[in-house]
Design a protein that fits this description.
Two copies of one chain form a homodimer.
Chain A (H helix, E strand, L loop, with lengths): L3 H5 L3 H4 L8 E10 L12 H16 L8 E4 L5 H9 L5 H5 L5 E4 L5 E5 L5 E8 L3 H18 L4 E2 L3 E2 L11 E8 L1 H5 L3 H10 L2 E4 L12 E6 L7 H29 L1 H17 L5 H16 L8 H10 L2 H8 L8 H12 L11 H4 L2
Antiparallel strand pairs in A: 1-5, 1-8, 2-3, 3-4, 4-5, 6-7, 8-10, 9-10
Chain lengths: ~375, ~375
């Protein structure tokens, strides 16, 4: 398989070497950029798209950050490979479904991915474990400058960066954080939080972006606005609201453990029992159970070292990864037994749950 | 506690020495009898009830079968003790709620219990593991004859035995079998079976008789009619319908394992995982999970030796037994954690589930 090296390489988000935080799983910034002298990909002729693809990939390939990375064009990938890249948040659903003259360049550690000829000519993304908005912005800003040295960006002094969709015009930036919010979900406060986040002009989505639901208590919070505000202001506002949500989640967890400890212990115990014993597990149920195991780490019922296993499985239970592990295509109606087997095996040697939270105390 | 010896004694239905069948858990016959010269208990004056109680208990005590048995009057028992007796099917809900001048005599092996001053002066019951209608009828018939030697039964040559409620007049006999029918329940055929059983004039009830539901896939099938038909005919008809239900359950199980094996393995695996890990379990959920563990024995996913553990727990998860084991009163809202702990402990050393049913093959 063309993407095997990429799947088997150490990657920050999938090998657990840089553990994600208790609440913020990952932070991501992407920039939409277009080149002058060619229509946006949706309007470009095939020859123009081909030109842009080869020119862009050449420039991207020369970036120091891309040394040891993977250059992948969509026409050479199977649907399964595309799905796997999507499940790793390396390509968008849109790129997954297009074929002609488009592709992605993924850095060796998979923290950086640049899509070519998605909705815009370039979609530059940086993605890291934990809450690192500032660090990522510095990185992607430098990267953007390097690219601009060799590519002529479409830029208007009045509007800023020009993009295919008007919602991206201006900074072309979308910054987001992926949060695990079991406390707010279990105490039924998520609706209130979503309202609060929306009120300050930020969006809340599920694990797989726009249109996906919040399975596994995972929510993505991102800016909506790209025009009339500097990158720094946008990131400052996002950082503030993320801090507020983190505080609310912390409080919700404390309150839950104080007021409904027995119910939480029951839920976590059952989740563990089902993961170790079920023979049919849908992707949705699996994510919800994994969410509870992650929460078990948070409250000291499992050792901190188990976080990496759970986070890796959040990705590995997805249909694409499941089929990759099985080594063959598995029809949708045959996936639940495979997923259940994978999880039984993965949780077979789980340390016993300490329902008094004593794994926390010993640390 | 007055009934401690009785709880801790070896009893056929609770210690698993006489294992119940795969489908028929137990068979029971009870006879309603009344004495001449005194009104039925509901109409009798307190002095008359006292007379009947002492006279009857004296006669019952002298029966050879009652040697080593327990003589219990309701006024000397706490509500918890009465509840425990009811959960062991030794006294009725009606006797449980009455206090004055009534009681029960339970044989040493608890297979025989005679209530005095329930709805009728005497309610004689024999109860055994497995399907043993004929054996029980011979036993209870002999017992009835022995009692009649010393007690003057109210009997009409035209109607037969006279009883407080006209539905018992005639033979005064109700014969029933307790069946475990997970195959018919899981394949949604129970409604059809209940209709069939009702059509031939038999009744279907839940684990605790009239008005109780069929939690744990346990159903009680019994005769309704007591008049105009001999005991032998009633028992023959019951035996026939029981055989028909057993055949249907057998077929349903085979078909389920052939057509929905993965779903059944999943259900059984989850049941095991939840019993070993839950921290809150209602009585109803516990019975439903135990039912699946019993089914696991039936299909060879657990060794036959585990049947006794499951059957014992069907009784021990009931509120009365739970409080007895805890050694103190537990308020209803505090019972679920206790029940979950009991089951976690009881299933801690369960042998691994063999999902290929290989425990059956090695036997």
């Amino acid at each position: 398989m063309r993407i095997t090296p990429l799947i088997e390489a150490k990657a920050e988000l999938t090998d657990g070497t840089t553990p994600a935080g208790s609440i913020v799983l990952s932070t991501r910034i992407r920039l939409a950029r277009n080149l002058t002298g060619a229509p946006f990909p949706g309007w470009a002729k095939e020859a123009q798209r081909r030109d842009i693809l080869s020119k862009s990939l050449e420039v991207i390939e020369a970036l120091p950050i891309m040394e040891g990375g993977s250059r992948l064009t969509m026409d050479e990938l199977s649907p399964l490979e595309k799905q796997i890249l999507h499940e790793r948040h390396l390509i968008s659903r849109e790129l997954m479904s297009s074929r002609q003259s488009c592709g992605v360049y993924v850095s060796g550690d998979q923290s950086c991915a640049i899509m070519v000829n998605e909705e815009d000519h370039l979609r530059i993304q940086m993605l890291r474990s934990g809450l690192k908005l500032k660090q990522i912005f510095n990185g992607i800003n430098g990267l953007d400058d390097s690219l601009e040295l060799n590519l002529d960006y479409a830029f208007s002094p009045q509007y800023g960066y020009l993009t295919a969709c008007p919602t991206n015009v201006g900074t072309g930036m979308r910054a987001s954080a992926m949060l695990h919010l079991p406390g707010l979900v279990l105490s039924n406060h998520m609706e209130k939080v979503i309202r609060m986040v929306n009120q300050v002009g930020l969006a809340v989505r599920g694990l797989f972006g726009e249109g996906s639901d919040a399975t596994g208590s995972v929510f993505q919070i991102s800016n909506q606005q790209t025009l009339g505000e500097s990158e720094k202001d946008i990131l400052g506002r996002l950082q503030n609201i993320l801090q507020a949500v983190i505080t609310q989640e912390d409080n919700a967890r404390k309150k839950l453990m104080e007021e409904a400890g027995a119910k939480i212990r029951d839920k976590i115990g059952r989740a563990c029992g089902i993961l170790q014993n079920a023979h049919l597990l849908s992707s949705e149920e699996a994510l919800n159970l994994l969410s509870l195991m992650r929460f078990a780490v948070d409250v000291g019922m499992l050792p901190e070292g188990e976080r990496a296993r759970v986070d890796r499985l959040f990705i590995e239970v997805q249909p694409g990864h499941l089929q990759y592990a099985a080594g063959s295509t598995i029809e949708p109606n045959e996936r639940d037994p495979w997923r259940a087997r994978l999880l039984r095996e993965q949780f077979d040697d789980l340390p016993p749950l300490n329902f008094d939270g004593s794994y926390n105390k010993s640390e």
